[in-house]
Amino acid sequence: LMFRSSRIRNLLTLTAIAASLCLPSQGASLPPEKDRRISNPPAALKSIGWPRLYKYSKYFNTKTYDVHILGTTEVSDEKMLLVAEFIDNMISALKSPQDRAKFAGHHICLIGSKDPDLGELGSVPNQRNAGGKNVTLLTADVINHMARDDQGNEFFRGWNIPAHEFGHSIELKLELQKRSDQVFSSNAGNYNLKMKREYFAWASETWFNSSRSKVTRDKMPKWQYDYLATIFDAANKWMPASDSQQGQAVPRIKRN
Question: Are 224 and 179 in contact (CB under 8 A)?
């Protein structure tokens, strides 16, 4: 989950909600291979994610890992495809073929800033991003786009939110929580137990050179790099488009 420091008190509530995003298989039939483009969602996928809050009108299925990408009317077709490529590449970066296969049927739910926020579910107002075991919720407007910080200053926000939230999904899907807790509690300076589920997600941002701190993979502490290198393939050099390449498509990884 993406948090500002002033919202730390909401962490446990949001983390619990994110962890609860564990939907059963929807059993939806996918479009034929030749028709895998932006289309209307299959009937079984039109109202998923947090209980029937969002109405999805757009659908794309990633060819490589059978991930469902859903979007509301507030989400552009271009952003749907960019996010699909990004998620495909994050999954492709996983070292184990068995781990990559676990993401078949995962749901990426894209909403816009005009769509309802989680406050309408009794959670934290103004929050629209979270990563769960089987569902990742992302606000498309703040991906690879201009944004404002707490002081109202404009800045270019690249791919930190998808890297962070799908990092949560990876940690949950691969059941890495105990390993992460041991590694980060033993090595991270000023380790905060209340923030324990955020450390792997923050590290995922850095591994894919997407952190707002601008720390890149080659500058990660050795202990952190070594841990993530047991999960991601260190020889896989894919990174999302940089700030200077905003608006360009993300290149797909080709595996042998």
Answer: no
**Residue 77: left if φ>0, alpha if ψ -120 to 50, beta else—which one?**
alpha
Q: Are strands 154-157 and 107-111 parallel, antiparallel or unpaired?
A: unpaired
> How distant, in Å, are the alpha carbons of 43, 68, 94, 180, 184 from that of 168?
27, 17, 14, 11, 15
- Phi and psi angles of residue 61, each rounded to the nearest 5 degrees, phi first: -115, 125
Please check whether residue 154 is in contact with residue 147, taking contact to mean a CB–CB distance below 8 angstroms: yes
Span of 40-54, 102-116, 121-135, 163-177 with lowest mean pLDDT: 40-54
Q: What gap in Å lies between CA 205 and CA 7, rounded to an integer?
A: 20
User: Residue 173 corresponds to which amino acid?
Assistant: K
State the pTM of this model: 0.81
Judge whether residue 201 has pLDDT over 50: yes
CB 157 within 8 A of CB 145: yes
